[in-house]
Amino acid sequence: MTAFPNAPYYQRHIFFCINQRDTGEACCAQQGAQAGFERCKAQVKAAGLTGVGKVRVNKAGCLDRCAGGPVAVVYPEGVWYTFVDAHDIDEIVEKHLRGGHVVERLRLPAQIGR
Amino acid sequence: MTAFPNAPYYQRHIFFCINQRDTGEACCAQQGAQAGFERCKAQVKAAGLTGVGKVRVNKAGCLDRCAGGPVAVVYPEGVWYTFVDAHDIDEIVEKHLRGGHVVERLRLPAQIGR
To answer: Tell me, what's the ipTM?
Structure first.
């Protein structure tokens, strides 16, 4: 984008919602979000993708798409994912975070919100 | 970006590091990060910018640029900021989150890391 010419600090930055809602409503924290975050962080590290100019794996508060939880979003692409298990996470790491290809089968449908 | 043709769920997504490090090292939480987050969220809401297709203000865990704390990053642009007070936050909201223009005076220098 010509308006933002600087190299990005991270090539890809993935944020996992690990929000815990105390009201009894559905939330990512009840759906394995923490395990997904930890798996992703470990796999990215094991693949040597961690660091400046590469990949950062982050916790985030509520991303407000609770109906699709657990969710994560990859920037700068703005691609949203929902995942079930470690296999899903591994596929996101290998195909998207390393390879730059969207994992279509795990993509969060556009209409899914809170 | 041709590889990612879908409209973004949020036009702009800002993440504030509100990480609390317990080791005595510098961290954003000691530097007014929570106040910055809350100010930003309130100002974005007051400006009617909150929501799908518009702006989302999020908490995040450690963004690993602690030396410049408190820090925040705006995606999809990948523009990083450091801020001191409510005036700084208001300028980020008005110029960048609403107007799409980078606030150069608040930009985190590229070499600032952990």
So the answer is: 0.92
